[in-house]
Amino acid sequence: MDDSIEGAEKIAVMEGLQRSLEDTDRAICMISNFSHRLRSTLTVMRIYTELIQSGACGAVEDDLLDKIGSIESSIDELSEYIDDVQDIGAITNLPPEPYLENNDLYSIVTDVIKGLSSRQSSRLRLEMSRSPLPISAMADRNLSRKCIRHLISFALSNSAPDEQVALRIDKDGDRPIVAITSYVEPIPESEMLSLVDGLTGNVSSLSTQEWKALPLPISIGYCKRMGGSLSIKELDDGRWSYTILFDEGNG
Question: Which of 47, 108, 113, 222 sees the fewest Cβ atoms within 10 Å?
Fold first, then answer.
């Protein structure tokens, strides 16, 4: 009798887990569809604002250009939130193992920059590598793009609107790196843990400042998923360096 009760409890638990997984899959699918629709609308809005700013629609007064600039800034911010929400779902449903292969880091970073708005990319300053190019890394290309994109998002979102953020592809010893340097200070470990809990918890309760900080733990999550690491240190000039370390590639 006890064995049958125990067996029934195990079945109930397994059925509960299965329902939970199905609910998670449905939620991720819903987030993906919702994010795609929002992103499509924002893309159209961004095209219109860039056309107006370029003068393609005729002369525009300076005060209106300032307002359009504010709209474009809001579009960028909302796009980053959409990316974060989508990856909150995706990071909990990744394949069992990353697909590690030989990748040119410059090619990956170029893909990431192409996906940024003109306003965002204009704030990035590419620094020369001290190591000869190309620099190859053993990495999952998709996860690498997400890791770098979120790290850039963290630096841009938390720095002054006119501040330049430095990006460098290089080597640290034998390890290929992508380094982001800015005056943005890292999140305290206690707050980091709270944000990580928010990845699978009630993200709607996060404050605006927490949303801006969220890309950092997401980036760390993707980095660890590939077997890489993220080093954070303060530089002599008061800036902070956020460095993604990859395993060396074959070439």
Answer: 47
pTM: 0.68
Strand-pairing partners, residue 245, are: 177, 229
Per-residue pLDDT, 23: 52
CA proximity to 165, closest of 119, 133, 219: 119
- Choice between 103 and 197, residue whose per-residue pLDDT is larger: 103
Any idea what DSSP says for residue 159?
A: S
Residue 105 CA, distance from chain mean position: 16
Q: Are strands 165-172 and 124-127 parallel, antiparallel or unpaired?
A: parallel
For the chain, give every domain's residue range: 2-91, 101-248
- For residue 250, how many other CB atoms are within 10 A of its CB? 8
Give percent of the chain with pLDDT exceeding 90. Answer: 28
The helix (run of H) or strand (run of E) holding residue 64 is helix 62-91
Q: Please count the other Cβ atoms lying within 10 Å of the Cβ belonging to residue 187.
A: 19
Distance CA(70)–CA(76), nearest Å, equals: 10
Give the closest residue to 216 by CA, choosing from 180, 165, 248: 180
Using alpha carbons, list the distances in angstroms from residue 142 to 61, 82, 103, 106.
43, 18, 11, 14
pLDDT tens-place string over residues 192-231? 666 655 554 555 566 777 777 778 887 887 888 888 889 9
Closest CA to 128 of 88, 170, 163: 170
Domain 101-248 has CATH 3.40.50.1950: no
* Contacts for 11-17: CB closer than 8 Å, 24+ residues apart: none
